[in-house]
Design goal:
The protein has 383 residues and is of the alpha/beta class. It contains 13 helices and 13 strands. The chain has helices spanning 22-32, 48-60, 80-88, 138-148, 161-170, 215-226, 239-249, 265-273, 283-291, 303-311, 325-332, 339-365, 369-374; strands spanning 2-7, 10-15, 36-40, 66-69, 92-96, 122-127, 153-158, 177-179, 200-204, 230-234, 258-260, 277-280, 296-298.
C-alpha cells in the first residue's frame, strides 16, 4: 500500500509493505511536523540584552518549532511579493523583547510594527513601554493602536505591570494584557567558576556623552583594586554596538582594570557570572548577574531597571553613578541576592514561555486532522 505524506511543500510516497511500519512512519512524521515561527523585534543589532531573547527563544521554542529571524526584511515595495511570501509560510510570529513601545517617538522601527507580520497570527511577547518621560506623541499611539488592535494579534504580554497598565489605558486592546518576569530570567545559565581569593568587581557601562559621569566610578574601582580585587570592565554588546561601547569605555580611566570585550554572547554571560559584585548601567547585564546570584548595584536609574530591582526587593540598590549615596551603599555592604525571589522570577518566565508554546502548538496541531492524529496534545520540554 502506498502512503502519501506532505511535509512542508513536499509530497512523499511510502510503500508501507516494503518501507517502515505504520508506527515507525508516524514517529518519523512526528519529528518532521513542526510549526514555523518567526521571531522579530529589536534583535540582531548587537545589544547584549536584546540578543539574549534569541537565546531564550532558541532554548524554549526551538525544542518544538523551526525558528526564522524576521528582522531586517524591509525590502522595496516592488519586492513586496517576496517579502510577504517569507511571512506567509510561517505558522506564527513572535514580536518581543526590549522597550519596543516608546510613547514619545513618532518614528517607529519597521521591525516593531511591520504590517506584514499581521498576515499570520502574532503574539506580542514581554515588551516594555519606555515611560521615563511623561510626554506622549499622538502619532506613536495611533500607529501602535492600529497594530496591537488588529484581529491577528492573538496575545500581548509585558515584562512589568506599568507597561501593561500603559497599554491597557492608551491602546485598549481586545484581550487582556498579561504581565510576567522579563523573559531573560528564563535563560539557561552557563556554568561558571569564581576565584574567591581574587574577587572581581564587574562594571558595565553604556554610551555616555559626558565623561564626568564616570569620575566616581573611577574612584570606586581604584579603591577595590587597592583592596586586592580585580576590576573587569565588561562591554555589554557585540559587533557595531559593542564597538561603540568599547570606544566609550576609554572614558572610564582606571589603572589596572581589565576590559572584557567579545563578539560571543556566551562569553559575556560567563564574564558576568564570574563576578563577585557588579555595577551595571544596563538592564539585562543586571538580570543575568542577578540570576547567577551576583550582588548588583544599578547605576542607571531608569524605569525598567527600577521595576526589575523592585521585583527582587532591592530598590535601594538603584542610584545615579554620580550620587554620593553610591559610596554609602558599597561601604555598608551590598546584600546577597534574594535567590528565592530570583527563582520565582525564573519560574514565572518559564511558565509563560511554556504557555505561549502550548498556544502556538494547539493552533498548529488543530488546523489538520492528520496533525491531530500524529502529534501529541501536550508539549514537553527539556529544562
Amino acid at each position: 500500500m502506498i502512503f502519501r505524506r506532505s511535509v512542508g511543500s513536499d509530497i512523499i510516497d511510502h510503500d508501507t509493505e516494503s518501507g517502515p511500519s505504520k508506527h515507525n512512519l508516524e514517529t518519523e512524521l512526528r519529528g518532521l511536523l513542526k510549526p514555523r515561527v518567526g521571531i522579530t523585534g529589536s534583535l540582531a543589532r548587537g545589544n547584549y540584552g536584546d540578543e539574549l531573547f534569541v537565546r531564550v527563544y532558541e532554548h524554549w521554542l526551538g525544542q518544538w518549532a523551526d525558528l526564522t529571524l524576521l528582522t531586517g526584511i524591509h525590502r522595496p515595495w516592488y519586492f513586496r511579493e517576496i517579502r510577504t511570501t517569507q511571512v506567509d509560510i510561517l505558522d506564527a510570529v513572535i514580536l518581543g523583547g526590549g522597550d519596543l513601545l516608546c510613547p514619545y517617538r513618532a518614528q517607529i522601527d519597521p521591525d516593531f510594527i511591520n504590517p506584514m507580520y499581521l498576515r499570520r497570527p502574532v503574539h506580542v511577547v514581554g515588551i516594555g513601554v519606555e515611560n521615563d518621560r511623561p510626554d506622549i506623541d499622538s502619532s506613536a499611539v495611533e500607529q501602535w493602536n492600529d497594530f496591537l488592535t488588529d484581529p491577528n494579534v492573538r496575545s500581548i504580554s509585558t515584562r512589568d505591570p506599568s507597561s501593561a497598565q500603559w497599554i491597557t489605558e492608551h491602546i485598549n486592546p481586545q484581550g487582556n494584557v498579561a504581565t510576567h518576569a522579563d523573559l531573560v530570567c528564563a535563560l539557561p545559565l552557563l556554568p561558571v567558576e569564581r576565584d574567591e581569593g581574587k574577587p572581581i568587581l564587574g562594571i558595565v557601562t553604556r554610551y555616555i556623552r559626558d565623561p564626568k559621569d564616570y569620575r566616581q566610578l573611577e574612584e570606586i574601582a581604584a579603591a577595590y583594586i587597592a583592596k586586592g580585587w580585580r576590576v573587569r570592565h565588561i562591554i555589554g554588546g557585540v559587533e557595531d554596538h559593542g564597538r561603540r561601547d568599547l570606544e566609550n569605555s576609554e572614558h572610564l580611566r582606571v589603572e589596572g582594570k581589565e576590559v572584557f570585550h567579545s563578539n560571543h554572547l556566551d562569553d559575556i554571560t560567563r564574564a558576568l557570572g564570574e563576578c563577585s559584585l557588579l555595577l551595571s548601567m544596563k538592564l539585562h547585564t543586571t538580570i543575568v548577574a542577578t540570576m547567577y546570584g551576583v550582588p548588583t548595584v544599578c547605576v542607571h536609574p531608569v524605569a525598567k531597571i527600577r521595576a526589575f530591582m523592585a521585583s527582587i526587593g532591592r530598590e535601594e540598590l538603584v542610584v545615579e553613578p554620580t550620587d554620593p549615596q553610591l559610596l554609602k551603599v558599597l561601604e555598608d555592604g551590598v546584600p546577597d541576592v534574594p535567590m528565592e525571589k530570583v527563582n520565582q522570577l525564573r519560574d514565572q518566565a518559564v511558565a509563560y514561555l511554556k504557555d505561549l508554546s502550548q498556544r502556538i502548538w494547539d493552533d498548529y496541531r488543530n488546523t489538520s486532522s492528520v496533525r491531530q492524529h500524529i502529534l501529541p496534545e501536550t508539549m514537553t520540554w527539556a529544562d
